[in-house]
Specification:
This protein is mostly helical. It is built from 8 helices and no strands. Helices cover 74% and strands 0% of the residues.
């Protein structure tokens, strides 16, 4: 927010504690976690929670947004540590793991979907951009085909991750992701 003052250190700690407590509750499967329980777990009063987050949905939205930020920051580090194709392979697996995390939050995320919140549009854009960065790097290195875009690959992964309602989906999702990755390497200039 332009013109707003920086948050005091104690307020920042309280906000981070609230986000951490909410993340633990939601990812732990407590989709009905009450704000009172989250505040208590964070070691703050309910009023403090409401000073940071106007509604329970705003808290949920911020937990999800934070998860996406962490996820979408990974490509830069991965490209710094690995060849572009290996960086993409690792990021694809992170996306599958993100879907597993999302499974724990699925019930609470439904409340966000019922609103006009831009959080999902923003998340899709950021994930597609991260994939595009990795695909472009791999294409430039000659290790990945250059005719697939980040949004297209994200749609393919969306189909894979939609299986999460079935028992044992994560193992199968990782296998299908490996097939996708092999397909991305197959048309690379060096593979010819």
């Amino acid at each position: 927010m332009p013109g707003s003052r920086p948050m005091r250190a104690d307020a920042r700690r309280n906000r981070e504690a609230l986000l951490s407590a909410a993340r633990q509750a939601f990812l732990g499967g407590d989709t009905d976690a009450h704000v009172e329980d989250i505040a208590r777990s964070a070691g703050v009063a309910v009023g403090t929670l409401y000073r940071h987050f106007e509604t329970r949905e705003a808290l949920i939205e911020e937990v999800y947004r934070t998860e996406v930020e962490v996820l979408c920051a990974a490509p830069g580090d991965l490209l710094g540590d690995h060849a572009p194709d290996e960086a993409l392979r690792r990021f694809l697996l992170l996306l599958v793991d993100h879907a597993a995390v999302g499974k724990g939050m699925s019930g609470v995320l439904e409340s966000i979907m019922a609103t006009d919140s831009p959080v999902f549009d923003d998340a899709r854009t950021r994930m597609a951009d991260a994939l595009s960065l990795l695909l472009d790097a791999g294409s430039a290195a000659g290790t990945l085909r250059g005719d697939v875009t980040g949004p297209t690959l994200l749609r393919a992964l969306g189909g894979v991750c939609a299986m999460r309602a079935t028992e044992g989906w994560l193992v199968e999702a990782r296998q299908i992701t490996a097939l996708l990755f092999d397909g991305l390497r197959y048309g690379a200039p060096q593979a010819r």
